[in-house]
Amino acid sequence: MSIEESHKVQLTYGLAGDALGWGISPHFRCTSLLLVPKFLGKEGRLYVLTFVLAAVYDGPIANLWHNLEEVVRSMGCTVELQINHSRKMWHVSTAPMRVVLRDMVRSGRRLKEEMQNVSRTFAGLNEQVASEEGYDLQQPRGRLPRHALSTQTLYEMKTRMRCKC
Prior knowledge:
Blueprint: H1 5-24, H2 26-40, H3 42-121, H4 123-130, H5 151-164
Helix pairs in contact: 2-3
InterPro entries: CSR-E3_Ligase_Protein
C-alpha cells in the first residue's frame, strides 16, 4: 500500500506518542484500554462506521466519480470526432460529383454559346432559304409535282430559278 510521505510522518509521530504515553503514564494506558470496549459498543460502532464510510467515499467512490467524468468526456470527444469524420467523408465522397456537375454547367453554357454562334452563322442561309426573291409563286401546276416536296428539293428549285433569271 503506497502512503504519502506526509502521512508516513504523521503515523510515525502518532506511534511514538502512543509508545511514550504507554511508557510514562498509567492513565494513558487505562484510557487506551478502556477505548476498546467503547468501540465495541453502540457509539463505537457508529464512529467506526463513519470512519469506514469516509474512507470508502474518499477512495473507491471518488475514483468511480472521476472515472465517470472521464467516460463522459471520452464519449463527447468520440461523438465530435465521428461528426467531423462524417463531414469530411461526405465532402470527399461527393467531390467528384460536384466537379462533374460543375463541368456540365460550364459545358452547357459553352454549348449554348456555340449554338448561338451557329444560328448567327446560318442566319443568312436561313434568310436565303425562306426568301421568295427570284421566282414566281404563281407557276403553272404542271411543273411542280403534286406531292409535298422536301426542304432540300425546294431549296434546289429556288436556287435554279434564281439562276435562270
